[in-house]
Amino acid sequence: MKGSATAASGLRKAYKDKIALENRLRMRAFRGVGVTALAAALLAGAAAPVLAIADSRPAPKATAGQDRPELQKAIQEWVDDGYAGMQMRVHDQRGDWVGSAGVRKLGQSATPPTNGRFWIGSATKSFTATLVLQLVAEGKVELDGPVADYLPELGLDRRITVRMMLQHTSGLFNYTGEYYDDGKYVPGIPATGKEWLDNRFRTYQPEELVRLALSKPAKFAPGTGWSYANTNYTLALLLIEKVTGHSYTEEMKRRILRPLGLSDTMVPGTRTDLPGPHSHGYFRYQDADQWKVVDVTRQNLSLLAGAGDMISTTKDLQTFFSALNGGKLLPARLLAEMRRPDPRSDGLFGRYGLGTYVLDTGPDCAGVILNHDGSPPAGYGTLMYSTPDGSKTLTASITMGDAAIDQAVVFPKALNRLIKEVFCDGQAGAEKTRPAQ
What we know:
Shape: globular
Strand content: 15-25%
Oligomer: single chain
Radius of gyration: 20 Å
Structural class: alpha+beta
Number of helices: 11
Largest sheet: 9 strands, antiparallel
């Protein structure tokens, strides 16, 4: 019994430490180019191995790989830092460049497929916010109206508006656990360590997740603060379904995926495997006194419904984010609202608007760029960046391996180098970046 209690105490401490790291990365004073939610990849667990499903399509070749060695060098640096692999796509005035570095699977020599699918994590939020804002454009949802008007059965605080939900200013408890301003920690659904590992294929219903959050104390009164919480976007999923009378998946297909031809993007539901070519992701975790590495390619992301569960490719993310920022999915007035950040969200990511971060890289670089990166519970990381007109984009997938990496140190530096190379033409001006005013 004493050993079990000690192990449980260790898990609780590890989970709190990971949440604290996530919060420090989000809210630390801005230095250099903003970091993404991959830095919070420590907030998760692991899953069992999976065999790649055969796909007859040839992997696309880099269209400008021979004359852009600087981009290949930029992704190789991530592998040199300890990440297992990386695939990246850059679109700019010179066209598309695609490339990869590292390995597709530990113990093998094949490089990551440049058309590989991956779990995109919180980049899902940009898709979900776009769906909600399309309903606003159609007059079916009021941006500053109470969410409770659309979902009365949940008993929500009527002060919580649709805008607050999309901007993380609702104060709702984050259903995977929450730290309060007084330092108190309240656990939620296990999302890291062995506790998550043992339940990695469990299916959660969106309403179940939201109701769990509503059973916990709010972090602050609606509109009085900012705190990133997946609860907001699972709530947005429920709103979309209630207002349209269709499933979130149906609306995603009808409004975004089919019109843009995103054939490699999907809402997986309870699906646990990645279809088609893909790299394997891994999770390094501590079990008692031992460090273990587990293949987490398979995972049930119903845990992050509407907030971080989608599957995509670098090509599809490039098409989506370019179309969104190019004004093809939302009218100009709502695209402007999407880019109106809350100043209280100031941190390493820039500032948070409605489903997108706004990052000012300064006059010596590209000025304002938009982004929303992410990671599922473990194994994968997504980068999704664009200039405001959608003409220059960076999309990438990073996979974790078996190396011990200090994410809080390594990831921000690696991302800073990459953003400088892609958006600042390799110039040091990116080091002067600052949050958008």
